[in-house]
Amino acid sequence: MSETNAIIAIAARDMLKFLRDPGRLVAAVVFPFVMIFLLGGTLQLNLGRSTGFNFIAFTFTGFLGMTLFQSTAQGLTSLMDDRQNDFAQELFVSPVSRYSIVFGKILGEASVAIMQVLPMILFAVILRVPLTPAHIALLVPVAILSCFMGGAFGLLLLNTMSDSRASNQIFNFVFLPQYFLAGLISPINILPWYLEALSLISPMRYVIDLTRGVVFNGSPEYSRVVLASPTTNVAVLALMFMVFMVIGTALFVRRETNR
């Protein structure tokens, strides 16, 4: 029970920080809508007819998966602030499992990421993305898996950072190439072998592809926008999560213990 209480308390702290930041709330709502509207609308008019599928829906699913994954991963950088004000050390001297502390942090940032994408479901109606109640129901477990995958990936990256400035540089270096390698705004069915190799090790690829697999399921353009079956994507994401979580937590705990 003490472990559960600790996880809930740490997660609730992150949610409360998000709700008390009006600037972050506005940015979380406005940015995805503007990007989907501009990019999706532009690509639909210029490429939609030639490619034969809905580019607005394609862009929507890309930004939905990216937001869930990246928001949770970047949220883990708040541990840098906790480290600087010694809050992390206070957590580690408490009689709570190290994995519970890290899991609570990931759970909190996952909750924040899901709060950020809820308005995107309303945007889908405005932008005429073909989302049915069945699609929305299937997106719930997809969102949870994507967030936890992002949290584990962010935890692993956190061990390469020394301060907040370094975290911004590293995250930009890691995430920007994934926008193209994961097919965020353009299809990646055909890539040169060296880019294909990099794409296959990009976690965001499987998050976005899983999201598209749910939204485009049963549509005529499914085979043109989805790279792998949902089962394959879930299996790869589950394996990556376990590896990143175990290695990332072990490195983080050792680093904090030696401070």
Describe the structure.
- The protein has 259 residues and is mainly alpha-helical.
- The protein has one domain (2-257).
- Helix content is 80%, strand content 0%.
- It contains 12 helices and no strands.
- It has helices spanning 2-19, 22-51, 55-75, 78-84, 87-92, 98-126, 133-158, 164-181, 193-200, 203-215, 222-225, 230-257.
- The longest helix is centred in the first third of the chain and has 30 residues, at 22-51.
- It starts with a helix and ends with a helix.
- The mean pLDDT is 80.
What are the key terms here?
single chain, 259 residues, mainly alpha, 80% helix, 0% strand
Q: How would you summarize what this structure contains?
A:
The chain has 259 residues and is mainly α. 80% of the residues lie in helices and 0% in strands.
Helices, by number, come to: 12
Radius of gyration, in Å, reads: 19 Å
Instruction: Provide mean pLDDT, rounded.
Output: 80
The main β sheet shows up as: none
Distance between the termini: 29 Å
Which structural class should the secondary elements be placed in?
A: mainly alpha
In terms of quaternary structure, the protein is: single chain
Helix content: over 70%
Inertia-based shape: globular
Order of helices and strands: HHHHHHHHHHHH
Extended strand count: 0
Q: Regions with pLDDT < 50 over 5+ consecutive residues?
A: none
Sheet-strand content, in percent, reads: under 5%
Number of domains: 1
